[in-house]
Design goal:
Layout (H helix, E strand, L loop, with lengths): L12 H4 L4 H7 L20 H14 L7 H10 L4 H19 L7 H18 L2 H11 L8 H8 L3 E6 L1 E6 L4 H6 L1 H9 L5
Helix pairs in contact: 3-4, 3-5, 4-6, 5-6, 7-8, 7-10
């Protein structure tokens, strides 16, 4: 009656950080988080292994010549180590290049930035004040705190988890410019001078 195969069950990363995950853990004692691919280390230094792995994925997924080398590098920097984001940004950059320049030449950095802005605009319209403050707190170097807001940020991928021996969290590179736009306001709230 049982199929002779192995099955892999996945759950959203946000569930991994809830009390409800204990139920999952009781049914499936071998659980582990699949980390995002690091393009930078926790201290901000480059992670060449992660960058090379993501560039290899692009080389396998896209026909040669569709991306300028600088555009491929920018895709890797913008995707936050998320394979799905890497592929989606690459696809949208290539489609934009075809739409703007026709069949002439590969997608360029400006095409990647256009694709990234489209994703950023989605975040711009969906992040709440409370979520901005939590992202700013983590971006400012404070530790990850497991709470409903941070779990929502993990679920919507504006906050990413990485593993470097010990887990660490960082704001998605596409979302960071939104924090920079509001840096003065968020820093003022952080100092206690603004309203919360």
């Amino acid at each position: 009656m049982e199929p002779r195969c192995r099955a892999v069950y996945t759950v959203p990363l946000a569930l991994y950080h809830t009390d409800d995950f204990q139920q999952v853990h009781m049914s499936f004692p071998r659980t582990f988080a699949l980390p995002n691919v690091k393009t930078v280390e926790r201290d901000g230094t480059s992670c060449p292994e992660g960058k090379d792995a993501l560039l290899e994925v692009l080389n396998c997924r896209l026909m040669p010549g569709l991306l300028a080398p600088e555009a491929a590098e920018r895709l890797v920097a913008r995707c936050g180590g998320l394979l799905k984001e890497l592929i989606a940004l690459g696809r949208n950059a290539v489609l934009r290049a075809r739409r703007v320049r026709g069949e002439r030449g590969p997608a360029q950095v400006e095409d990647v930035e256009y694709a990234a802005r489209q994703v950023r605009n989605t975040y711009r319209g969906s992040l709440t004040e409370e979520q901005y403050r939590e992202l700013w707190r983590i971006h400012s170097g404070e530790p990850f705190v497991n709470n409903p807001v941070s779990r929502t940020l993990l679920h919507n991928l504006s906050l990413l988890e990485y593993d470097g021996g010990d887990a660490w969290w960082a704001v998605h590179p596409i979302v960071r410019p939104l924090l920079e736009e509001r840096a003065d306001e968020l820093a003022q709230d952080d100092d206690g001078d603004g309203e919360r």
